[in-house]
Amino acid sequence: MYIRRRNVLAAAAALPAAGLLPRGASAQQRFNSMYVFVPAGPGGGWDGLGRAIEQASRAAGLVGSFQFENVGGAGGTVGLPRFVSQRRGRGEAIMVAGAVMVGSVITNRTPVGLKDVTPIARMTTEPGVIVVPANSPFQNLQDFLNALRANPGAVAVGGGSAGGIDHITLGLILKALGKNAREASYVAFAGGGPAQAAILGAQVRAGISGVSEFAEQIRAGRMRALATTGETRSLDNVPTLKESGMDITLGNWRGVFGAPGINATQRQALVDWMTALHASPQWREIVQRQGWDDAFLVGDAFTQFLARDQAETEQVLRDIGLAG
């Protein structure tokens, strides 16, 4: 899963227009058009990955045009059934999702899950970051931990959907402090935009999300980063949880899924597209600029990873009291 493993993705930052990237002279167009379903609101990590796939694919000449649809809510479990029912057998349709959906399906006990779509490729992974508003009394991680230790319910923490990686991060912190995750005052948001607004507006006392989603606010001095969740530092002068004495390492992977019911030829065409995209200079440029970690994995290897991730996520959710 994403416990004790190297990190993770990101993505709400604005990307340059596709026309600014050189078109590959020898590129082979794989699809005339592609429908991209994002089971989350605009501005978050899944949406950012989808837009990056569009821009790099168009610039490299791999896909002619794109159509996007965003349906947010409950860690992707609101939109997922729509994709499953409306795009069955469609070879020119993909969904962007990741680790958050794995936890949300388990926590919400939804009948439709990633088992109902076709794994194509894991693309990126990224660490999380714990932030507070710039005027917060929490000057460092220890201040935050002391407040949680004293009264977890009094420290509202905003993040992604219930049961997702942000929620799991808070649960593991509370467990390390000798508390129960069910004591947390966790406020779930449907996307990166609403979470940022709540943190900056002091509706919550702290927030947890992918580094890239809060990076701009941190650089601008509107948020203060207390710690990151990776194996190594992702931000200058910001410690990891591990080096701060908490044995917690988390990463948030994101990837691409095909519609249910597609045949082997349709699936291979999507795998070939992702493979060509991953090898393109346009994609490498975006990944480097965004500070994402490359986590490319396709086909059967991705399917096997998913099975392990789901089993490990369910175990962790049980361990911290977020799943039955």
Describe this structure in words.
This protein is an alpha/beta fold. The protein has two domains: 33-124 and 253-319, Bordetella uptake gene, domain 1 (D-Maltodextrin-Binding Protein, domain 2, 3-Layer(aba) Sandwich), CATH 3.40.190.150; 128-228, D-Maltodextrin-Binding Protein, domain 2 (3-Layer(aba) Sandwich). It has ten helices and eleven strands. The chain has a six-stranded mixed beta sheet, sandwiched between helices. Strands 7-6-8-5-9 form a five-stranded mixed beta sheet, sandwiched between helices. α1 (45-59) links the parallel β1 (31-38) and β2 (63-70). α3 (99-108) packs across α10 (299-319). The longest helix is centred in the last third of the chain and has 21 residues, at 299-319. The protein is globular. Residues 1-26 have low confidence and may be disordered.
CATH first level of the largest domain: Alpha Beta
- Helix/strand/pairing class, anyone? alpha/beta
Number of helices: 10
- Kindly state the number of beta strands: 11
The residue ranges in which pLDDT falls below 50 over 5 or more consecutive positions are 1-26
Mean pLDDT: 89
Helical content class: 25-40%
Oligomer: single chain
Question: What summary fits the major beta sheet?
Answer: 6 strands, mixed
One letter per element, helices H and strands E, the order comes to EHEHEHEEHEHEHEHEEHHEH
Q: Write out the strand line-up for the largest beta sheet, numbering strands in chain order.
A: 2-1-3-10-4-11
Question: What's the CATH H-level homologous superfamily of the largest domain?
Answer: Bordetella uptake gene, domain 1
Total domain units: 2
